[in-house]
Design a protein that fits this description.
Elements: E1 6-9, E2 14-15, E3 29-32, H1 37-45, E4 50-60, E5 67-76, H2 82-85, E6 92-98, E7 105-116, H3 123-139, H4 143-154
Parallel strand pairs: 3-4
Antiparallel strand pairs: 1-2, 1-3, 4-5, 5-7, 6-7
Length: 155
């Protein structure tokens, strides 16, 4: 299960419906679904540029609509020092791996969870909860301090 992915411009905060006519540069765009825009906007405001911001729910096991692997992932344009955002909330991790044959680096903030549907919430409800929790965490970060740390650690 994946939401519909579209291009979103974090500069003008609008969906990009026509790439040829959108006036903002492409490096301000993120591939995202509607639920993930809050995370993308918050990171972008801090100087951390997301390239993709997606969530997935993969059904596991033999019982339908019971067991899922939930993932909330944000690919960012470059590796940042973990001191920039600090310790992430429980379940969230920094991923800095080289995984491809061309030795491209992976720069990601991600959350994964094996979730069981006991009938109280839907998969989308649980994903929305995870996203809101991470947005709340990002709201505790000082955007100007994050930008300053980025300049010191990457500049």
């Amino acid at each position: 299960m994946v939401e519909v992915l579209r291009l979103y411009c974090m500069d003008c905060r609008e969906w990009v419906y026509d790439r040829d006519s959108h006036e903002c540069p492409i490096n301000h765009w993120v591939v995202a679904d509607e639920l993930m825009i809050g995370i993308a906007d918050r990171l972008y405001a801090m100087g951390i540029v997301p390239m993709t911001a997606i969530w997935t729910a993969t059904e596991l096991g033999e019982v339908k609509d019971y067991e899922y692997l939930l993932s909330v992932k944000v690919d960012i344009s470059e590796r940042i020092s973990e001191a920039v955002l600090g310790e992430l909330p429980v379940g969230w991790r920094y991923y800095w791996n080289t995984v491809s044959p061309d030795r491209s680096e992976l720069h990601m903030l991600a959350y994964t969870e094996r979730w069981y549907n006991f009938g109280f919430d839907s998969v989308v409800d649980r994903v929305e909860e995870l996203i809101k929790e991470f947005e709340s965490y990002l709201d505790t970060r000082d955007s100007e301090a994050v930008k300053a740390l980025l300049l010191l650690t990457t500049g």
